[in-house]
Amino acid sequence: MNIFKLTILSTLVACGSFSPTEGEWQATNFDLSADACMLAATYGITGSDDSLSLTLAVTDDGFTSAIGNATPAPCTLDGMNYECTLQPLVFDFNDGFEVEDGDDLPAFDAVATFATTLTGTFTDANTATGTTGAEGSCEGDQCDGVIAAIGAQLGTDYEMPCTSAVSFDLSAASE
């Protein structure tokens, strides 16, 4: 490729004309080395060989990304870098809590909040890398009880505050 074409391509990408392929994507090659908030358990990921499906829709400001039936998260593009704004996950245990495939939790004076970020870089319109970061906190007089109950449900020692950083690869699904 000559320098003129490379300059035009770089200018187009820098001006925001890049957009990823719309449709179904797969997240794979998870690195779960720092997952104290148990993101892997939340999304059913047990190792690097797992995959997670998501839907990407192109917007005027970038794109939206959603896992399953979740509310799509708005994502902005800066060249080929992206950042997604996810709504915090809030679990209010004051009225008890129903656990899928487990014992329900009784009422606790506790509210757990998980603030999550999603950032990464596209290699091209069909491939990208990313990192999901999460910070968990708990407010209320009975947070220790909630944390112990969550740990018992997950079969692990669980602590709060917690921090997770899970990296992964993304690729547009084949047609």
Briefly characterize the structure:
The protein is an alpha+beta fold and 175 residues long. The protein has helices spanning 3-14, 39-43, 143-154, and strands at residues 23-35, 52-59, 62-66, 73-78, 81-85, 89-92, 111-124, 127-139, 162-172.
Give a description of the structure.
The chain has 3 helices and 9 strands. The two termini are 29 Å apart. An 8-stranded antiparallel β-barrel has the order 1-2-3-4-5-7-8-9. With 175 residues, it is an alpha+beta fold. Helices cover 17% and strands 45% of the residues. The chain is elongated, with a radius of gyration of 19 Å.
Gyration radius, rounded: 19 Å
Number of helices: 3
Shape: elongated
- The portion of residues assigned to helices is 10-25%
Classification by helices and strands: alpha+beta
Low confidence ranges? 1-16
Largest beta sheet: what is the strand line-up? 1-2-3-4-5-7-8-9
**Helix-strand sequence:** HEHEEEEEEEHE
Largest beta-sheet characterization: 8 strands, antiparallel, barrel
End-to-end distance, in Å? 29 Å
Nearest-integer average pLDDT: 82
Q: How much strand? A: over 45%
Q: What is the tally of beta strands?
A: 9
